[in-house]
Specification:
This protein is an alpha/beta fold. 44% of the residues lie in helices and 12% in strands. The mean pLDDT is 81.
Length: 178
């Protein structure tokens, strides 16, 4: 059975915070992750070293997720790469038409071909695991949600601790592709 450590996921999103968040979720699940900040960069990465899976934002500058997806489907080798659309615009004027066109044209099809932002980490990881045939590791129900744990810590942190934490986060922010 395939293992997460042996699979590479390309995370494409023009928002650096979202891109880094999604990449960190996947790294925590032991996937190898590369990133791209727009559709053109994504296609360069894909042609250079095709990933095993693509997490693709829909609305981006330079080249939309829809255009990237249509280009991938024209190439027999790249057409087989599973793609998950991750968008905040499934229900609005910015992305609804593109998403509806993708679904109507059956460029991707089946249940769960897209996730709406904000993404729940477990849902995101499980989708990637299923698409790649990786055994899903059950989540411990007593394990606190990272966001809840962070909020709890923030509510009792001193101002100096918050400044140190913010500085540490800024120091660890990835530069370019990761």
């Amino acid at each position: 059975m395939p293992r997460a450590e042996d699979k590479t996921v390309l995370v494409v999103d023009d928002e650096p915070d979202v891109r880094n968040y999604l990449a960190s979720i996947l790294r925590d699940a032991r996937f190898n992750v590369v990133t791209a900040s727009d559709g053109e960069e994504a296609l360069q990465v894909i042609h250079q070293d095709p990933p095993d899976f693509i997490s693709l934002d829909l609305v981006m500058p330079k080249k939309s997720g829809q255009k990237v997806l249509y280009e991938l489907r024209k190439d027999k080798k790249l057409a087989k790469i599973p793609v998950l659309i991750v968008t905040a615009h499934a229900q609005d004027d910015m992305g609804q038409k593109d998403l509806n066109d993708i679904l109507a044209d059956k460029v991707i099809s089946g249940p769960g071909v897209y996730l709406e932002k904000p993404v729940k980490p477990n849902d995101y990881v499980r989708f990637v695991q299923r698409a790649l045939g990786i055994e899903e590791i059950p989540e411990s129900s007593d394990k606190p949600d990272l966001k809840d744990e962070l909020q709890e810590q923030l509510s009792s942190a001193s101002p100096s601790a918050l400044r140190r934490a913010l500085a540490a986060l800024k120091d660890n922010e990835p530069k370019g592709k990761s």
